[in-house]
Amino acid sequence: MVGGGPGAFIGGVHRMAMALDGRYRLIAGAFSASAPKSQETGRALGLEPQRVYDSWQQMLVAEAALPPSERIEAVSVVTPNHVHHGPAIAALEAGFHVICDKPLTTSKALADTLVAAVEQSGCHFALTHNYSGYPLIREARELVRGGGIGRVLKVYAEYLQGWLVDPIEAGGHKQADWRTDPARSGPGGALGDIGTHAFQLLEHVTGEKVTRLFGHRSSVVPTRKVDDDAMVLLEFASGASGSLIASQVCTGCENGLTLRVYGTTGAIEWRQEHPNDLRILHKDGATEIRRPGNSYLSAAAASLTRLPAGHPEGYLEGFANIYTAFARAIRGEQNIEHAYPTVEEGQRGVHFIETVIASAEQGQWVAL
Amino acid sequence: MVGGGPGAFIGGVHRMAMALDGRYRLIAGAFSASAPKSQETGRALGLEPQRVYDSWQQMLVAEAALPPSERIEAVSVVTPNHVHHGPAIAALEAGFHVICDKPLTTSKALADTLVAAVEQSGCHFALTHNYSGYPLIREARELVRGGGIGRVLKVYAEYLQGWLVDPIEAGGHKQADWRTDPARSGPGGALGDIGTHAFQLLEHVTGEKVTRLFGHRSSVVPTRKVDDDAMVLLEFASGASGSLIASQVCTGCENGLTLRVYGTTGAIEWRQEHPNDLRILHKDGATEIRRPGNSYLSAAAASLTRLPAGHPEGYLEGFANIYTAFARAIRGEQNIEHAYPTVEEGQRGVHFIETVIASAEQGQWVAL
Amino acid sequence: MVGGGPGAFIGGVHRMAMALDGRYRLIAGAFSASAPKSQETGRALGLEPQRVYDSWQQMLVAEAALPPSERIEAVSVVTPNHVHHGPAIAALEAGFHVICDKPLTTSKALADTLVAAVEQSGCHFALTHNYSGYPLIREARELVRGGGIGRVLKVYAEYLQGWLVDPIEAGGHKQADWRTDPARSGPGGALGDIGTHAFQLLEHVTGEKVTRLFGHRSSVVPTRKVDDDAMVLLEFASGASGSLIASQVCTGCENGLTLRVYGTTGAIEWRQEHPNDLRILHKDGATEIRRPGNSYLSAAAASLTRLPAGHPEGYLEGFANIYTAFARAIRGEQNIEHAYPTVEEGQRGVHFIETVIASAEQGQWVAL
Amino acid sequence: MVGGGPGAFIGGVHRMAMALDGRYRLIAGAFSASAPKSQETGRALGLEPQRVYDSWQQMLVAEAALPPSERIEAVSVVTPNHVHHGPAIAALEAGFHVICDKPLTTSKALADTLVAAVEQSGCHFALTHNYSGYPLIREARELVRGGGIGRVLKVYAEYLQGWLVDPIEAGGHKQADWRTDPARSGPGGALGDIGTHAFQLLEHVTGEKVTRLFGHRSSVVPTRKVDDDAMVLLEFASGASGSLIASQVCTGCENGLTLRVYGTTGAIEWRQEHPNDLRILHKDGATEIRRPGNSYLSAAAASLTRLPAGHPEGYLEGFANIYTAFARAIRGEQNIEHAYPTVEEGQRGVHFIETVIASAEQGQWVAL
To answer: How many other C-beta atoms are found inside a 10 Å radius of the C-beta of residue D273?
Structure first.
């Protein structure tokens, strides 16, 4: 693991996600840019001291030098965005599989080199757009791509949070601090942090590609150096259209990711905060609510649930589904199709950020 | 009443709304452009035959000639949009108060003359943006305008229906027929029919004025002569921003009008299909759900409920609230402030339609 | 109308319910046991003074003496429970149809005489168990009775309110005053006021008869003279079982009437406070939500809706459905089967009250 | 671990729950009464072969013989109910802490000996009434016990499932097989399997003790050897009353555990299937919805969440909270009060089963 030291949020999530299904063992890490902090985290996690490194560079060199049976197999990159590209490229070059947090990189140019590196390496690469790991997102994908709602007409995605409505980065809030610093988060604030999740999800579920967009973004908190709010109109190759809104200043919103897709014969509606209800609307019939663990689900969705119907699984379980699918890929086991987000999806996310910024600056539609 | 003959929808709604509180008696009408149909409707409603007219022109002349104690006091205009302006102006000139369905007229220019006519007439004029008659919309308005959510930052309004996803106008569906015919509905389809409701509601509740917008509209059904889908980005005088989406091709949606307003300290969320739950989000506290009929509501909201808490009132009751407030105004009774939508709000709605169309054509932001 | 004077609640509801569909004209009334109050109400309602009576006895005599074309056709009895039996019997004897509020009478013995009187009179009689007027209750009834959930196994009905958690009758609350006075409400408090609604609803929807019950009741407010809380276990002729709980001391509950019925192949779940969602559960399929105004509903349910899908109708509309069905019956028009609750259902409700009381006293199961 | 071999359900849950927070390492097990199956499971879990035992008796002897630094510290008992008492007593006698699934034993007499054994052993003992591990159940408990809803008046608990509506035990369904066999499940079917969960939860949250109950139970599936449906009326020492229903034949229900508690000034409502919404009703105020991860929660509730607000945690996380609290207890770390269910709660659950059965047989109220 690279990153995930004291004060980190997502590192702990990755560790719980890899523990849940017993497919991973965390045996080495460079948990912080500060060597003592890295050691502190390694100790807390019960790692052997010699496998806790002062830097990711050191880790990759040292681990690559170990006999194959002892060395790590895969690297989790859970650092702030500007430290995704470096360790990911290096890990691939050292022959390790890579699981990387999103957004992939801080620029499209860097993303391109990473895509190339994955190809050359022959290694597996997963990007933790974890929301695609929910069973009912998988069900929605199977349904929509399988024609279950007819031809897609409208797509509305939202990701609303409220935690940045005040300039808490000024008060030393660690998560706010790096996420609102363009040097570490990249050019997109809300756009990158949560907008890319919504974007990945809508293309993942619909199988449709956005071809043109119109963006509006703002820093609602005036002192903020990145956007904390964005609204994007979307046009798709198929002729469908839609919108994506991402905001971190919607007071009272927690983690309000929603996806709604309307087709010629039906529709799906899903809300991350109640992830176990998938509403399916029908042109000539009653609304359906599908829930995990039931026999009527597609095989792909069924494979992502650990418990009988009515036993809620949530964020960590969805995250773990990505990890477990990646473990299967590494082991060459049978896997569901598109079981985890790819480096290309990460590249597209970064392209999305840059395109919205360009459109908002120009006040015009821009091709994606 | 002008309009509301056989096959009409909204005329019957107006009649139930005026009956509910016993403040109106329907005594005359020109219910259709077809004289026999007007007579048929008049008979079914139990009107005296001599008060059922062959045209609204005839009705206004004849009624004005009656002694004041016998003649009508107010005229309800419930015709398709292109027949709002004529009878409304004439009724005002004849000294009758007017209640008119929305959108006000088929062009901003016509709306301007109607605004002037109201002023000159000294009569009262109400536009049935009926959704502002819901008690919890009133509560939201009191709360938001009273500073209860701080400074407004984001406003999202939606009005999603699915009934026009197929070209049912081609099959003789009477409601679809005139609503998709620009000669009768005006230049906006979904924009005018439902978009203006959402627009009125968001300005009504927030007290904020949209100053600039960016529009996208489409005829998702290719043979359709008006838009059946619109997406609009909004900027407000206060610096707030937001979006409005209105669509009649969202399969499975019934009458999905929603309003969400996020401020610096709180937020409100409301859904027309479950109109008796107003969610209030707080920056540092649990989410609240306010419901009608409870002692904690504002006086203005409390005045719009007829029943104890937990006895659902709905669309007709909200509509009736507009009618009853208008009756109070005519009678000079104490009334709640802005108890019914005005002709100026109707004018602004028509301006909104024209501005969205202009923006969508130009692909640029346009001032409103 | 008998009753419905100043301070009354249900009288106003009956008047709105009869106004909504334009099938009734209120032309006479004895609105209060106090003659001046009766006159005051009559004036406020715009009745001709000579048709406002000082007592219901006077009204029935005077109206019966009018020529058939002028006299009233039906009498609404909206008084406290102990004044249902007298005017109802007298009205029937005078040849008037009767609409009566629930519970039918204050004793089974009185109910028996009323049933007999209806039979002898040849008049129509409706009891306003208004909740059976909701369109989705009708849908549930059609579904359950039509075998749509298989054989019924379990039935749970609840009616929870919180308004009597404090002894507000001591403070002069008019509604609480008579409803907690056994001389006026009869022996059941919560049991009679709301328990009978739940009981009627569960037999109405399932078509099953309760044959045995076990009751528990209490006066949670110690000074209260009637029960304000009851719990009843139920066994049905078919072998099904279930429970009914009715309480007026469930703090924060408004008007929480719910019905759930589970069968061998499916189930229905309905909540009065959100009356436009009927959940249908299936043994081998996703949960369905049916909503009014859609083409997939049964004809019987469809006939109870005035508006397109998504335009909420509520309590008053459901109440009006009872009134309108009764008007059709009086006029001999085509009607849906069991379109309004009958005097026999009222008789059974009073029997239910007495049986629960007996069981609670004995601590044993008692046959019904 | 004792139990949890091929085809087991709850064993896998315990393993995920212990893995999530990294506080446990599974190093030994007797996973099945069949030695080959135990070995198969041990291999699949990656255990050292010599720590996979053919029987729990063998395991306890062998582990106790290991040096303290190598031997197991605690035993998870995840077998069918009739094999709880044996390994639990033996483990305690061997000086191991015990985590045991519910219900505690198959009789009150056996439960009594286990309570005594825990006392004598000086070891810690936890019963996995896992639903008490949800953060909002903890919040509810803090609120109710702290007087936040006043004096408790009414308590309604439900646990509705539908999976046993058909006699699937006849078809070889492994879970149904032992759960409907009185020799393995004990005398209560639904009562023991899910009724005890509801019972523990209601006493856990309210701090009130049931002192008297009236029970009804049935085998809705006629060939079934245990009850699959139960209804129980409850009276509490404080004067409160309520009901508990537990059924496994409510078609379409998944895992419908709900708890509602009404007090003199407020109320709480909670549903396991949407465990992250706690509704709090107030006598004179709007309904509140509290959600995990927010600053307004009690410290005790806050300690049970791993993620920021809006990132759903569910069943496994609640289960893991029990495991982690138990690990803290074993380590002597600071813990929240009553952080995991005790052996006495298990004893009380078995007593509850026996008392309901007695009451149902006698048709009378019975003291508990």
So the answer is: 20
